[in-house]
Specification:
FAD/NAD(P)-binding domain; 2 domains; six-stranded antiparallel β-sheet; five-stranded parallel β-sheet; 12 helices; 15% strand
């Protein structure tokens, strides 16, 4: 049985390796960290979460939640580890990022079919290969991928939110709650009145930013990860209707509905670290400290990791990939993860799973699978491989990708019912497809 080379031990590469190992296929998993860093990762463990510690909604009536369910149906490995290392986050699946990465690393290091090699690959190897080097692919490998795809890389800029120490938060002002009291009260909330918000806003819009020398007029931000200062530049109230919206968050001690609220989400299993939700930023560190300490409850906050911005790279998948995640121009070469333009942690894991499954089926002489478009993962992989795209940009899983479902006229505005029906349809079709294909 031929072995498989996987480049990148991030979320996609780790998942692909575990999928192949389950089928008894030997894997050489290459990871350049910690010898060579990316500028955004902080350690050398596999499957490190960089920007946030949330995998998004766990509810199947949300597209991201359904994608997680589909991974469970198809035998995803990292989704199991994520659930085992989850932390309270209301209706979302958030993980203790260090515990999760260490658990994945341990699993890979102890797997007899996987050899973890701490070495940078600068060229695409011959043979059976999965490239899952991520949006922070090293320059030399990125250049070789560009040459292989015969096109310039597209790219956008992504930002990371600060992490703070919970003991430094003033709970005389901050309070625990989840929006609309859904699930456990697992978020820390820092409320603002109008005057406090305006002070915060004025500091933000005048704060100095870190200069990015490779930002040019063609560079783009991914809309779901916009730096808070970019959001603020769109209008004074943009933040109050975005990451700082106060709706559904009331301090039971006061009963006051606030003008704006800053939320913090648990970042580690010990509950000692929390990250600021939606506070991705590229402000200079001194400005970040001033900004955060202007927030009620964070006056003396201890920042353990400042926000940073980094360049993310992805291939022009509609011209490169099939829905199986295999390259159109070279058999046995697959791509997976954010490098393919699937934006988000859950999407990275899912495409790594599909690439691993299809590589295994290819080597075992079985037909590769193209998941039905009625499933979230099937819709996503068909979307990124649609050769009709002329303005391709990174995309998350979302309901707009799947074929619509017809509701009775009187129910057409019932979004919850519609999403329930879409989710039930996907699960039913995927279960049937799994049985037909012997997955």
């Amino acid at each position: 049985m031929p072995e498989v080379i996987i480049i990148g031990a991030g979320l996609a590469g780790s998942e692909a390796a575990l999928q192949l190992s389950k089928k008894g296929i030997k894997v050489k998993l290459y990871e350049m960290r910690p010898d060579k860093t990316t500028g955004a990762h902080v350690g050398g463990d596999c499957a490190e979460f960089v920007c946030s510690n949330s995998l998004g909604s766990a509810d199947v009536t949300n597209a991201s939640g359904l994608l997680k369910k589909e991974m469970e149906i198809l035998g995803g490995e990292l989704i199991k580890i994520a659930i085992e290392n989850s932390v309270p986050a209301g209706n979302a699946l958030a993980i203790a990022r260090e515990d999760f990465s260490k658990a994945v690393t341990k699993r890979i290091e102890e797997d007899p079919n996987i050899e973890l090699i701490r070495e940078e690959l600068t060229k695409i190897p011959e043979g059976n290969v999965i490239i899952a080097s991520g949006p922070l692919t090293s320059d030399d490998l990125a250049e070789d991928i560009k040459n292989f795809t015969a096109s310039e890389h597209l790219h956008f800029f992504d930002a990371i939110a600060p992490i703070v120490e919970v003991e430094s938060i003033n709970f005389d002002k901050a309070f625990w709650a989840s929006r609309y009291d859904k699930g456990e009260a697992s978020y820390i909330n820092c409320p603002m009145n109008k005057e406090e918000y305006e002070t915060f806003y004025n500091i933000l819009i005048s704060a100095p930013r870190i200069e990015q020398h490779d930002v040019d007029k063609k560079s783009k931000f991914f809309e779901s990860c916009l730096p808070i200062e970019v959001l603020a530049s769109r209008g004074k109230d943009t933040l109050r209707f975005g990451p700082m919206k106060p709706v559904g968050l009331v301090d039971k001690r006061t009963g006051i509905e606030n003008y704006a609220v800053v939320q913090l989400r648990q970042d580690n299993s010990a509950k000692t670290l929390f990250n600021l939700v939606g506070f991705q930023t590229n402000l200079k560190w001194g400005a970040q400290k001033e900004l955060l300490q202007s927030i009620p409850g964070l006056e003396n906050v201890n920042i353990v990791r400042y926000g940073v911005m980094h360049r993310n790279t992805f291939i022009n998948s509609p011209q490169v990939l099939n829905p199986t995640m295999e390259s159109r121009n070279r058999e046995g070469l697959f791509f997976a993860g954010q490098l393919t333009g699937t934006e988000g942690y859950t999407e990275s894991i899912a495409t790594g799973m599909l690439a691993g499954i299809n590589m295994a089926r290819r080597l075992l002489g079985e037909s590769m699978i193209e998941l039905p478009k009625e499933t979230i993962l099937g819709a996503l992989t068909h979307y990124i491989s649609d050769s009709e795209h002329t303005q391709f940009q990174p995309i998350n899983s979302n309901w707009a990708l799947v074929p619509p479902i017809e509701l009775p006229k009187k129910e057409r505005k019932n979004k919850k019912l519609k999403n329930e029906m879409l989710a039930n349809r996907s699960i039913e079709i995927l279960e049937k497809y799994k049985k037909e294909k012997g997955l």
